[in-house]
Amino acid sequence: MNSYEEYSTSFIQSIENKERTIYSTIKVICSEAEEIPINISIELFNETMLEYPKKYKVYLLNDNYTSMDFVVNILIKLFHKSFEQAEQIMLEIHKVGRAICGVYSHEIAETKVMQVLKHAKDSGFPLKATMEEE
Question: Assuming Cys at both sites, which of 80, 99, 106, 120 could form a disulfide with 93, CB separation 3.0 to 4.6 Å?
Answer without folding.
Answer: 99
